[in-house]
Design goal:
It is built from six helices and no strands. It has 117 residues and is mainly alpha-helical. α3 packs antiparallel against α4 (63-79) and α5 (87-99) packs across α6 (101-108). The two termini are 28 Å apart.
């Protein structure tokens, strides 16, 4: 996963976030057990399901949407270096989901338009 990510996005993410952050994230991934990886896969499924359900409500302030946000934070913290998470970084990433067609395509596979929601 790390090799694929480095090959596809390495230059871009290292330029944007810096070598230290990316190296710390990669080290976190390398240290993951198979059990932890399976937990993250389950979390990903729960996040995507919750996001789709929240989108159907049309209410980004509603409980399902807030649950999706909390799950997304938990998911991010699985990959981001310890201590790197903050609400501003989360919002900046969310804006990237709107601005970057690669993220838009991923999230719109869950439900068309969900990337903006």
């Amino acid at each position: 996963m790390i090799d694929k990510n480095e090959k596809e996005y390495g230059d871009e993410i290292r330029k944007r976030f810096g070598d230290a952050v990316i190296d710390a994230s990669n080290a976190k991934l390398k240290g993951m057990t198979a059990m932890r990886h399976a937990e993250i896969e389950r979390l990903t499924e729960e996040l995507n399901k919750t996001l789709a359900e929240a989108f159907k409500t049309g209410d980004p302030a509603g409980q399902p949407a807030q649950r999706a946000c909390a799950l997304h934070k938990e998911w991010l913290c699985c990959f981001w270096p310890d201590g790197a998470y903050n609400p501003e970084a989360h919002m900046a990433l969310a804006q990237g989901y709107v601005d970057d067609k690669r993220f838009t395509a991923y999230y719109d596979n869950i439900a068309p338009g969900v990337h903006y929601f």
